[in-house]
Amino acid sequence: MGEIRSTCPYCGVGCGVLLRATATGVEVRGDPDHPANRGRLCSKGAALAETVGPEGRLLAPMIGERAADWDEALDLVAARFRRTIADHGPDAVAFYVSGQCLTEDYYVANKLMKGFIGSANIDTNSRLCMASAVAGHRRAFGTDTVPGLYEDFELADVVVLVGSNMAWCHPVLFQRLMAARAARGTRVVVIDPRRTPTCDSADLHLPIAPGGDAALFNLALAEAARRGLLDRDRLRNIEGVEAALAAARATDPGLTGLGPQQLAAFFDLWLGAEKVVTAWSMGINQSDTGTDKVNAILNLHLATGRIGKPGAGPFSLTGQPNAMGGREVGGLSNMLACHLNIEDAAHRAAVRGFWAAPALAERPGLKAVDLFRAVGDGRIKALWIMCTNPVVSMPQADRVAQAIAGCDFVVVSDMMAETDTMRLAHVRLPAAGWGEKDGTVTNSERRISRQRPFRAPPGQARADWWQMAQVARRMGFAGFDWDHPAQIFAEHAALSGVAGALGSDFDISDHAGITRAGYDALAPFVWPANAHRRGGRFFADGRFHHPDGRARMIAVAPQAVAGPMILNTGRVRDHWHTMSRTGLSPRLNQHMAEPYLEVHPDDARRLGLEPDGLARVAGQGRAALLRVLVSDRVAPGQPFAPIHWTGETAAQGRIGAVVEGAADPVSGQPALKSGAVAVAPFVPAWFGYAVAARPFRPDCAYWARAAHARGMTAELAGGHIPADWEAAARRLFGLGPGLQAQVYADPSRGRTRLAFIDGGALVAALFVDRAPVAVSRAHVAALLGEPAGPALLSGRPGADRPDPGPTVCACLAVGLNTIAAAIASGACPTVAALGDSLGAGTSCGACRPELAALIARHAPLPKEAAE
Ligand SMILES: Nc1nc2c(c(=O)[nH]1)N[C@H]1C(S)=C(S)[C@@H](COP(=O)(O)OP(=O)(O)OC[C@H]3O[C@@H](n4cnc5c(=O)[nH]c(N)nc54)[C@H](O)[C@@H]3O)O[C@H]1N2
Ligand SMILES: Nc1nc2c(c(=O)[nH]1)N[C@H]1C(S)=C(S)[C@@H](COP(=O)(O)OP(=O)(O)OC[C@H]3O[C@@H](n4cnc5c(=O)[nH]c(N)nc54)[C@H](O)[C@@H]3O)O[C@H]1N2
Ligand code: SF4
Ligand SMILES: [Mo]
Q: Which PROSITE patterns does this chain map to (predicted)?
């Protein structure tokens, strides 16, 4: 069979992939012809084949704990929604969907809720992600338009990354930027309170005070005016210039937390180049002043005319593969479809007519935070959650869990049988996943690409659009009888033509007549795509989408984030959100295997936190237990924790439970990066490390488990010491009393080591210590299934087999110790030399910033050599 062209299901870069189905799964490589990545993939894209196995999939619709067939499940969902609406009105039901839905899924959900049920209570996890960018764009431009293209990162002279850890979160676009930097000397500025891996490849890192971004961009605007750099022609077509300038001039530089030299360096770089791209993501959006921060950035680009030109413009990096597509179809509760406004009567009339909608929603629905509040207090009585895991990812996550648990009727559609949200559903619907689904996604540069299946879904799993359309039909609604996503795409494209005629930027009416064959062959394209305009940048002509054609500058009064301990949260390189898929990949689990709290050495000293010990992080009256990572990459008072651990993968790793998430008044997006917390050491009676050939679920105060190529590994810690470690270990691993055990115990040091042997091979091992267990994880886990030798319990390889240490390069599985040794020997003074001798960093390149940092740390040479 030939290769199938599809798109990576992870980040908003939207890389093209080539898939070849094999007897056991799939081979994945970067599509050299896809304009987003030209063949490149990052570690997550390269590991896709490891995440499409049957493990954990939900295979049949479940009503309670009983497997049902689709007819019964869909009839039940339709009946319960119909009855709830009849008894309590349309606003008593809600959908909560996701930027990982395909455009076709999203379109159907939005049409059903806003056109036929007659409520706008459909919101999406994009509220946690893109809502402030959307609101900022709409305020400035009149519509939610990302003006630029990826090639602008390659054409710019200065690229500013603000609130973005691009090296880890948009790795392939970052590699494109790094290639341009190597070729033409692009200057890169990173604005982030943390010194992230992205900073390691930057010319200037500004460790901004949390929330200080609006002040910084305001000050740059005032400085631009002072230097006479405002674009007088452009200003004539902008409203609100004077007020914005006045607010900028009144800004207190103290709010940025930066010194005069740092500010001057930034102004010189930004204002000294015509071709500047300012790209931002969650460090800007996820704030209770996120919309103002976005507008402070847009103000500066508008006022200096650096917008809509090759190599110049503001650029909102989208997170999820279809965050942009969801915005196009109107997945947010305050949008209509195709960038039309729900508040506008003419827009509503057009959509009503096009859909022949019996009950078009008249006003915006509830935004995510309020939506779950309404679930909690019983105003919403029937809820359908699709393709997202809010019990982990929402702020106040325990309250969200309680709300869902208390709701009369909850449907969850997911690929996986067990997620923290799935566990609370009355009806669980098995969703087709990546590799099985057929549809389109839109990436950060407005490029629409096809996802194509390489196999049929397992069991009875079905596409999300099909599930929604079936329920709509069973509720008695007409207009939902597609039998292929191509028809939905065509309908959406036709509606976009109607929207375009009303002035919407989103118009892809070129494709309104697309056939099944045309859809199957559809090549990636950038919108708009219609008789007037195809692709390209917006606003080059100085015209905007407000009714008067003018842009708006917004007067922004910056505010500081206050508090002695501000919890910053975000992502790690090799995991995707709640890990339901990346957690299946042993390679990806090697990079970071535990939930952790990164704290500055001063905080650690002050609070009595031990390196590698445990910390209790409390906020909202809830706590998480995390491994302590002491590091000066974070500032004092600004600890950082990753978002990826769940009730499935850790005892108390759900960081959403401790985040309050006050919402931005304009966008409704919660502040997910600035929760007030208290941090204290958690001192357990024992620490443990366990490995087993078969999956196990620990039950102690602290645990974090991860899939491994040979089974499963777990870090453990407990409050009290069991009377009999051997019995406790057998319970932990589910092993009978018959199985042979090797035991080593040193009670004086609180040390016990147990290995269980079956048929001469190691099946499980437990290492217990009073202090954090010092064994080579990589070595011990690799012994699973191997013949049990005498040195099994030493926990270290013999002198002949050096310990590679934790994995740094996930693609080629090169460990930290191996790399550090190569650097220290003087043989590898550069990242390129490490690649030549060890292969590290030569595949996806995502670890190159870490390699550069390791060179800086271990090399007998000055840092410049690492560049
Ligand atoms: N590996 C990986 N990649 C991903 C994802 C993933 O789960 N894993 N998820 C995807 C999704 S959905 C998204 S939304 C994107 C997110 O991509 P990013 O936004 O790049 O990722 P985050 O780690 O959430 O946050 C970015 C940075 O914001 C900084 N920050 C915190 N507060 C402030 C502040 O006040 N000002 C500034 N300037 N910075 C601040 C944090 O220190 C952090 O380094 O990543 C996408 N890509
Ligand atoms: N504190 C804090 N919280 C955050 C963030 C942060 O930075 N800090 N970031 C926020 C952001 S930007 C985001 S985007 C969210 C992400 O948060 P979530 O959306 O909750 O995270 P995912 O793990 O991606 O959830 C997707 C779910 O859908 C399932 N799934 C995958 N494919 C399909 C499919 O095709 N159909 C269906 N029906 N299901 C499927 C997966 O198994 C998984 O359970 O988290 C937000 N929460
Ligand atoms: S950068 Fe990585 S995660 Fe993002 S789309 Fe490309 S391969 Fe996938
Ligand atoms: Mo996101």
A: 4FE4S_MOW_BIS_MGD, MOLYBDOPTERIN_PROK_1
Tell me how far the alpha carbon of residue 148 lies from the centroid of ligand 3, in angstroms.
19
Q: Going by DSSP bridges, is the β-strand pair 93-97/711-718 parallel, antiparallel, or unpaired?
A: unpaired
Torsion of CA 567, 571, 575, 580, to 10 degrees: 60
DSSP, collapsed to helix, strand or coil, labels residue 301 as helix
CATH of domain 566-682: 2.40.40.20
Compute φ and ψ for 339, nearest 5 degrees. Answer: 60, 20
| CA-to-CA dists, residue 203 to 303, 635, 640, angstroms | 25, 20, 23
Query: Parallel, antiparallel, or unpaired for β 551-552 and 238-239?
Result: parallel
Q: Evaluate whether 556 touches 616 at the Cβ level (below 8 Å).
A: no
Q: Of the CATH numbers 1.10.10.60, 1.20.120.1760, 1.10.10.1100, 3.40.50.620, which one belongs to the domain with range 807-866?
A: 1.10.10.1100
Contact 177, 186 (CB under 8 A): yes
Question: Separation of 856 CA from ligand 1 center, angstroms?
Answer: 25
Pocket test for ligand 2, best of 103, 170, 578, 654 (most atoms within 8 A of CB): 578
pLDDT at 866: 35
Place of tokens 């609006």: 214
**Does the CB atom of residue 578 touch ligand 1 within 6 A?**
no
Residue with the smallest CA separation from ligand 3 atom 2 is 42
Q: Whose CA is nearest to atom 6 of ligand 3?
A: 15
The domain locations on the chain are 4-51, 62-127+327-483, 131-316, 566-682, 686-794, 807-866
pLDDT reported for residue 579: 86
Asked if 80 and 409 count as a contact pair (C-beta separation under 8 A), the reply is yes
pLDDT in tens, 233-282: 999 999 999 999 999 999 999 999 999 999 999 999 999 999 999 999 99
The model scores a pTM over 0.90: yes
CATH number of 131-316: 3.40.228.10
- Ligand minimally distant from the alpha carbon of residue 573: 1
For helices 848-858 and 816-824, give the axis angle rounded to 10 degrees.
Answer: 50
Say whether 84 sits in a helix, a strand or coil. Answer: helix
596-599 and 4-7: which strand pairing?
Answer: unpaired
- Determine how β-strand 187-191 pairs with β-strand 158-162: parallel
Q: Which CATH architecture has domain 62-127+327-483?
A: 3-Layer(aba) Sandwich (3.40)
Distance 182 CA to ligand 3 centre (A): 21
Closest CA to 770 of 682, 690, 688: 688
DSSP three-state, residue 714? strand
528 preceded by a cis bond (ω within 30 of 0): yes
Angle (CA) 268-273-278 rounded to 5° is 90
Q: Which residue's CA is the closest to the ligand 1 atom numbered 30?
A: 283
Q: Ligand 2 pocket: which of 77, 128, 572 to mutate (most atoms <8 Å of CB)?
A: 128
Counting atoms of ligand 3 from 1, which one is nearest the CA of 7? 5
Residue with tokens 């240490």: 805
Indicate the fold that domain 4-51 takes in CATH. Phosphorylase Kinase; domain 1 (3.30.200)
pLDDT (tens digit, 9 = 90+) per residue, 132-162? Answer: 999 999 999 999 999 999 999 999 999 999 9
Around ion ligand 4, residues with a beta carbon closer than 5 Å are 129, 319
